[in-house]
Structure formats: C-alpha cells, structure tokens
Amino acid sequence: MRGYAQGMHRALTTAVVLSLVSFGCAGTPRPVAEPPPAAAVEPAAETPLRSNPPADAGPGLGSGRGVGAPPDALHRWAVHDLTRPQPVVVEPPTASLPSRPGRPPSDAVVLFDSHAESPNLDAFVGHEGVAAPWVVEGDSFRVVPGSKNIRTRKSFGDIQLHVEWKVDAQEAGDWGQKRGNSGLYIMGRYEVQIGDNLGSPTYPDGMAAAVYGQNPPLVNAGLGLNRWQTYDIVFRAPRWDADGRLVAPADVTVFHNGVLVQDHWELEGGTSHKKRASYGKPHGPAPLVLQDHKDVVHYRNLWLRELSPRPVSRQVQ
Questions:
Q1: Most buried pick, 48, 79, 88, 159, via CB within 10 A?
Q2: What structural domains and CATH numbers belong to the chain?
C-alpha cells in the first residue's frame, strides 16, 4: 500500500510540474508568439485556355481518301477521309461566376458585351424601331416595366444562344407569374420563359425554362432570387418545302444553370397564352425578342452563334 501511495505521489507531482511548464507558474497562459505576416501573393497571370496553338494539319495527317468505306448515295465522304475539311477553330467561352460574367466564344455575335468599356444596347431596338428604352447599369441591363419589348436589329435562324438573367428580391412580385416574368422569343415566335419559380410555383408550362404553353422543363434547376442564372439554348428553325408544307418543325434544347431541361423539344408552333400552338405561314430568319412583362428582370452577357441549317435528310452536306 505504501508503494502504491508513493507511485501516485510521483505521478501527481509530474502532472503538476507539466501543467506549470505549460501555463506558467502563476496559472496564467504563456504568451503565444504572433505568426509572421503572410507574404503578399502576386495575382496569378491568366492561364491560356489552350496548351498549344491550333494547326490545320500535322506531320502524320497524310493525304487521300484513306482506307474506310467509300462515299455513297447518302455519304459524300469516305470513312476516315483525309480530304474532308477540318472544322474551323473556335476559342471557347469562359465560365461565368456570380461576381463576373464569362467571355463569349471567338465566333459569337455579341448582343450585350458585359466586358465592354461602356456596355450598350446598340444591338437592340425598341417598339416601332426606336432606341431600346431599357436601362444599362454597369455590366448588365434591366427591363423598364411598361416600356415594351426590345428586339435585335439583326434576324437569325438556327442558333446557339447564351443568356444570363437575375431577379432581385426587392423587385420581385409575391406570386408565380409576377416574380420576374420575362421571356426569350426566338425568331420572335417561340418563347422560353424567364422568372423565379424556385419558391413560388406557377403553372408548369409557364415556369422558368418552359417552352411557354407547350412543355414544362424536365426539372426545376432555378437558383432563386438575387442569383445570376444562365440559359444555354440550341434552337433549330422550322423548315418548309417549296409548296409551303412543313417538313421539319422547330426544335429547342435548353440547359438551365448547366442542367438539361428541354431535350430536343419539337415545337408545335408559335407559343401563345391559353391557346394551342400551330404553325402559320412559312417564315425565314427573324429577330430575337426580349419580353417586357412589366416586371424588372436583369440581363447580362448575351451572345449567340449562328449555326448552319441542319439537313432534313441524312444526306451529309
């Protein structure tokens, strides 16, 4: 028992000594040295998108039609045909962040350049051809409620379209169709809906990313109020034959904030309110229209790429 008591005494003495060393004899914490100031970090240089310059050909390309299946009635080119033209090189777009918009690809038709020294709406006109009456604010612009729609000066057919939009909480209404209602009328006829429907449901074929009055989005990919959102759209214009018969309906693919929400949807005609859609007379390229639905919606970084018409048949052009 005496040996046990002596062992306990030694253990307690050791613990007390260690505590005093750690915290100081008076029981106050020992001063901790301040860490040295962090070295200033130089801003990183912008990293090039490509690791090497593009080339039209290389030493191993060779020539001739190759050894694949030859051309036929449906195929202009042989399989692995080395004489087939190389695709045009395009500098890709950069990604957008909440704090700043990305940059468009090198072959884009820029409708609103958020990176310009003085962004403007020169690519648009207002009702009856007047100057676009919406308001530019820094690197974005907004709808002026009641000022009517604006449209592009140029007309377009098949396109890839990029649009960024935002609904601010202090400007949003309190129910579905009044929470930042706007829309993109491709060719002035085919609407992809804009609005905040994350926390304010509305009729599904009239919510954000719907083909208005025709098809709801596959999922609700909205980010809510006060957040910049993106649409990336591929639109194929309708085709008519020489006699005015519809041979290929318009179709649209939409990514909302990077999520597929319209998958090659074939439009039933021009979109409209409370009515079934139908195609009227044949038409060609037409302006892109941005809707004034008397709500404030903000836009930035609008660009599109004009696409070659897609063949109606399988024939490779």
A1: 159
A2: 109-306 (2.60.120.560)
